[in-house]
Amino acid sequence: MIAGFVADYGYLAVFLGTLLEGETVLLAAGFAVHRGMLDGNLVFATAVLGATTGDLGAFLLGRWQGAALLARCPALARHTERAELLLERYHAPFILLMRFLYGLRIAGPLIMGHGNLPLPRFAVFNLLGAILWAALVMGAGYAFGIAIESFLADVKRLEEPLLLGILAVGLGALLLRKWMGAAGNRKHRHCRP
User: Fold this and answer.
1) Is 154 a member of any domain?
2) C-alpha angle 160/22/16, rounded to 5°?
3) What is the pLDDT of residue 121?
4) Of 89, 93, 131, 86, whose CA–CA distance to 107 is shortest?
5) CA distance 145 to 155
6) Based on the structure, what is the number of domains in the chain?
7) Contact 1/116 with Cβ under 8 angstroms?
8) Does 89 reside within a domain?
9) How far, in Å, CA of 78 to CA of 189, rounded?
10) Fewer CB atoms inside 10 Å of the end CB: C or N, the chain?
11) Which domain holds residue 80?
């Protein structure tokens, strides 16, 4: 059941998942690559395309509506000072590594788009960062597959529960992170109309 779903919709799931956050989907895809369900080159290319497309969209949204978004969204505005400070201090490395910094994966490109960072400079370093990110996260999923295989003789029988487990843990972590952030910032968590 899940193997068929992964084979039929795996690349689409990787693309859609990497548009925003994507770590869980890409970890599961890396595991699926190890198990031979998906092609590693296609997963990698799809993840890079999804991540750069999402970040470019956020950058352009920041360029187009950044001031209005920051005025209406206190949660986004809270990240502005940190992102601007990091960008000023570590320019290219910050663009490369922003997707690894909690709270700046989506906010970072929006804030950079709102600022005076040239689009071509953002695009080049963002692409390099997406390549690094996709290689590391997909590689971690692949390595997980190797580790599981070395511990369990009959991995084929456990493929579906393992894939579902990876997705469930990732979804649980995402929901917990959202819930904990919301609990700490109830009065500031939503954007005003």
Assistant:
1) yes
2) 85
3) 93
4) 86
5) 9
6) 1
7) no
8) yes
9) 11
10) C
11) 2-188
